[in-house]
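Limitations

Structures in this collection are predictions, not experimental determinations, and the ligand pose is part of the prediction. Treat each record accordingly. The example that follows, with iron/sulfur cluster as the small molecule, is included so readers can see exactly what is and is not provided: the inputs are given verbatim, and the output is the predicted complex.
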Amino acid sequence: MANEKLSADVVIVGAGICGSLAALELARAGISVLLLDAGPRYDRAQIVENWRGMPPHNKAFYDYATPYPVVPWAPHTTFFPENNYLIVKGPDATAYKQGIIKGVGGTTWHWAASSWRYLPNDFRLKSTYGVGRDYAITYDDLEPYYYAAEVEMGVNGPNGMDIVPSAPRKNPWPMDSMPYGYGDRRFTEIVKPLGYDNTPVPQGRNSRPYDTRPQCCGNNNCMPICPIGAMYHGIYSAQKAEALGTKIIENAVVYSIETDDKNRIVAMNYYDPDKQSHRVTAKTFVIAANGIETPKLLLLAANDKNPNGIANSSDQVGRNMMDHPGIGMSFQSAEPIWAGGGSVQMSSITNFRDGPFRSEHSAIQIGYNNTAQNSRAGMKALSMGLVGKKLDEEIRRRAAHGVDIYVNHETLANPDNRLVLSKTQKDALGIPHPEVTYDVGEYVRQAAVSSREHLMTIANAMGGTEIEMTPYFTPNNHITGGTIMGNDPKDSVVDGWLRAHDHENLFLATGGAMAAAGTVNSTLTMAALALRAADAIKRDMKHA
Ligand SMILES: Cc1cc2nc3c(=O)[nH]c(=O)nc-3n(C[C@H](O)[C@H](O)[C@H](O)COP(=O)(O)OP(=O)(O)OC[C@H]3O[C@@H](n4cnc5c(N)ncnc54)[C@H](O)[C@@H]3O)c2cc1C
Ligand code: SF4
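Predicted complex:
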């Protein structure tokens, strides 16, 4: 490594979906790219084995992080046991325990691949409903990039079906939706007379062979790992970029950023696992280290010219942290529903994604969770002290009748929901852990009253027994807001192209740029924004 030239046209920090898509787009344009990731490379077969070998308790309670080994130089969040890598404080600390993975390919290694577009009104929340913030761009500005991201990821969707409220499309989804499994089919039929439209979720998994990946066989193992690679992960785009000449350096933890007289970025420095420092230079830099690690790095890299942190003259770096606080419910339905046929998230109730009520309280997404119930059914049946035939029957009964449903809420940007560097906890390299203070706010709390009623209405319609509802808000890993976008450099960090207001040649390609959280999973929007940032870089390079 010592003799290697660590320089390229563009250095990208973070080889998750955003960094890898940007790298691929730039590599296709003949631009040289150095892609750094803090974590190692993963071997799919090993991760599958790690998951298979995990105790039933971990499987039953959705421990999707532990199969991915945590390395000391790049720790990510684990919850079994909780490693407290991400320190969370405040009234709704439970709602910000986010899952992230550090390794080439990033967190989408263990995502559910629900790949929604936001609605036009999500981009103009303030001007339409008088709450929250507007994006610096419109839905129409992002539409071509949404489609480019869908093509690259291989998103399937309900072509030919009119879903209201709609995110208008100029082109069909690259693939048609997969057929529902039995659970989603019955759920849709049962909730329809109650006035709920349960419609297909667009998904980044193959409903037919696509882009060298096989067709999804519906075995429901998507989280924590698709064993056959039918589901899209960032690793695919990273590998394609690599094949086009992008140099990927794994186990490279970026920790400092050098600026010049004009506050342009001239170099970044990273530690290898032995804490040896390496300097990388480029014309343009992109930080795509996810919604937690990007603001953390910007704060960590404060220097003489930027004493509050890089890109932070507005003091907005690390503020406005958002997600979709959730409420979950589980119960035993009167009839067998057989969750687990097909992928883990196939359908969702879209009626409450938009409307004038958003000036008062959150929009919501209600969903049926199609994760197979057998691990949890087995744990419960064992705890009942059953053995032999009775144990077998009870496991079968519970696996067939178990239902999980949820409501996710839109949050508003609130500067007090803030990420800072921990003053007390550091990782093995001496880098402070991130610390977030989080309060979901009245906007969410008001909506949650009727959310609980929706969940009870559905449970009753299904003849639910043993009903359990989470009494607190849960996280959804849709990490948005910490490097918020806007037109005014005084109250935002990046512009509509994700260019940092303070540094002409720095782009922050993460969900942090998103100015309003909407209700649905955010990654397709992050991916589209990253591709848009890559377009701006290409334009810069052409004019240079
Ligand atoms: C269990 C789970 C299920 C999910 N399901 C969905 C879903 O169905 N739909 C959806 O839209 N979203 C889902 N998400 C969220 C989705 O995974 C994230 O939004 C997405 O991965 C973010 O992409 P990213 O590229 O910004 O960050 P990441 O994928 O996290 O990648 C960032 C990369 O940056 C690297 N990095 C960090 N710091 C540094 C540093 N200092 N130096 C060098 N490299 C660094 C990390 O190692 C990492 O590889 C889910 C998340 C989880 C945890
Ligand atoms: S259902 Fe199975 S094959 Fe399909 S994406 Fe999920 S894990 Fe992969």
